[in-house]
Amino acid sequence: MYYLGEKYELIKATIKKYNLKNMISYLCKVADVSRSGYYKYFLVENEKLRNFKEKQDLLAKENVLKAFNYKGRKKGARQIKMVLKDKFNIIYNLKRIRRIMNKYDIICPFRRANPYRRMMKATKEHTIVPNLLNREFKQGIPGKVLLTDITYLRYKNGKKAYLSTIKDSSTNEILAHYVSDNLRLNIVLNTLKKLTLNKTLKLHSEAILHSDQGVTIRALNFKV
């Protein structure tokens, strides 16, 4: 003996298996159930399913937002996936994360393209220069081999500052430094200016300023 709900499920399974979409009325009659009852049953079941899925999405939204705002820095779907796994032990695939972000308007701000990278691409100023040092940084001669680099400094509310330094590779002394809130060319120019204004500093006649040829450094094409 079948319960009413079981009869409805059996009718639906039969229709799906044999592609009998136009025989709902006939199958309801054979099963001794009403056609309206059949439709009402699945209307209620679909509503229950929708409610269940909505609850699941709301829970996923809370988890995605936790990762999205983790440490005060907004993130894209890939970073959210990693943070959920590494920090909250939650596994979501990218498709689900992106669907939740779209559904609830969780928007990651796009990173602005570096204007100097575009500039170098347009002017072809990204040619690799000769490696004069060949990684012989420690030559034991103060003021000859200078190293320059830019470091990212994070502070409150996910903000960034940029520290540009010039270091003597032999003495490890910081000869000049400059802090900026952006990566414009003047961060390097101002660091060099501070270096040249240091009257107590004596550079070697064959001094070399070495960098990793990062985008901001490459755009200058300068010599010490």
TrEMBL record:
Protein name per the record: Integrase, catalytic region
Any single biological process term in GO: DNA integration
Domain Integrase catalytic: 138-224
Functional description taken from the UniProt entry: Involved in the transposition of the insertion sequence.
PROSITE patterns: INTEGRASE (PS50994)
Origin: domain of life: Bacteria
Pfam family, one: HTH_21
